[in-house]
Amino acid sequence: MPKEFSRVQRVNTLIQKELAIIISREIRLSGMISISEIDVSPDFKQAKVYVSLLGGELTVKEVVDKLNESASMLRYHLSQQLTLRTTPKLTFYYDNTIEEAMRLSALIDSVLPPEKTD
User: Fold this and answer.
1) CA distance linking residue 96 with residue 60, whole number of Å
2) Backbone angles phi, psi at 51, to 5 degrees
3) What angle do CA 26, 27, 28 make, to 5 degrees?
4) Are the C-beta atoms of 24 and 70 separated by less than 8 Å?
5) How high is the pLDDT of residue 2?
6) Residue 118 and residue 107: Cα distance in Å, rounded?
7) How many angstroms separate the CA atoms of 110 and 43, rounded?
8) Positions in the chain whose pLDDT score sits under 70
């Protein structure tokens, strides 16, 4: 029998979906912002939002700073969409998982011998 998702996991997923829509609608930035993970505290008062950036003219720090400046506005819009008693305080962080995976892949490729072609 499959293990059921906890309430925190369900809230994480719900916030991730709704916040992605709100950010694309409300925040005007060049490039695409992707929410890679949400980590809501067990008491639902804090949420760490991990984002990655694809393209754009702004640096990662500028994008994360802009999102953190807009956090209260995003929280308000999120509260309008969710049916939670309290909406968690949002804090944005940069997720460098994609760059790290590409770096490791390049390292592995540089160590492996080239394939022989017959």
Assistant:
1) 10
2) -120, 155
3) 115
4) no
5) 54
6) 26
7) 46
8) 1-5, 116-118
CATH topology of domain 7-111: GMP Synthetase; Chain A, domain 3 (3.30.300)
| Cα–Cα distance measured from residue 29 to residue 26, given in angstroms and rounded to the nearest whole number | 10
pTM passes above 0.85? no
* Vertex 73 angle, CA 67 and 76, to 5°: 130
Instruction: Identify the pLDDT of residue 97.
Output: 82
Collapsing DSSP to helix, strand or coil, 89 comes out as: strand
For residue 5, the number of C-alpha atoms closer than 13 Å in the C-beta half-sphere is 8
Look up residue 52 and give its DSSP letter: E
Q: Which residue has the tokens 């909406």?
A: 87
Residue 86: both structure tokens together = 């309290």
For residue 79, the model assigns a pLDDT of 93
Sign (positive or negative) of CA dihedral 23, 25, 29, 31: positive
Q: For CA atoms 62, 68, 73, 78, give the dihedral sign.
A: positive
